[in-house]
Amino acid sequence: RAAQEAVRAAGVIRKEVCRRCRLVIDYTQLGKLQYALNKNHYWIENTEYADRVGLSVIVPESQQGAFKALLTDLGEGQLAPVAEERLWAARQGEAYVFFPESQLLLPDEPG
After folding, report:
1. Beta carbons within 8 Å of 68's beta carbon, 6+ residues apart
2. Using only C-alpha atoms, what is the Rg of the chain?
3. Which residue(s) pair with 17 in the sheet?
4. Is this prediction's pTM over 0.90?
5. Angle, helices 27-39/64-75, rounded to nearest 10 degrees
6. Are 87 and 70 spatial neighbours (Cβ–Cβ below 8 Å)?
7. Contact at 8 Å (CB) between 89 and 15?
8. For the segment 29-60, what is each residue's pLDDT rounded down to a tens digit?
9. Does residue 48 contact residue 59 with C-beta atoms inside 8 Å?
10. How far apart are the two ends of the chain, measured CA to CA in Å?
């Protein structure tokens, strides 16, 4: 009975398969791109400033096509993201927690 109550209290955790993508852009593109990424609910994980700006962006796999289309529109065909790593995201309260692929279990994989 205690286990049933604990499971009920924990609730359902929804997880989503994502890709970490890397972009390198000019400083002139930064504000417009940050705005568009936030507006479309993509997660900017890290921003590195050097000669150019490097962005690490987490994008749900289900939105990869829309993400690439957005970059094509914003960058006039010049922005090319590099998918670096597959991971998954789980919502924890108001925040998201990201886990590496090594902890990813998909329905078609034995577990």
Report:
1. 81
2. 17
3. 88
4. no
5. 140
6. no
7. yes
8. 999 999 999 999 899 999 999 999 999 999 98
9. no
10. 26
Angle at 96 between CA 90 and CA 101, to 5 degrees: 50
| 105 Cβ contact list (under 8 Å, min separation 6) | 111
Two tokens, residue 63: 């939105």
DSSP E strands in the chain: the ranges are 15-25, 43-49, 53-60, 82-92, 95-100
Q: Token pair 């890709």 is at which residue?
A: 19
Q: What letter represents residue 47's amino acid?
A: T
Residue 13, amino acid: I
Which amino acid would we find at residue 10? A
pLDDT band at 23 (very low <50, low <70, confident <90, very high): very high
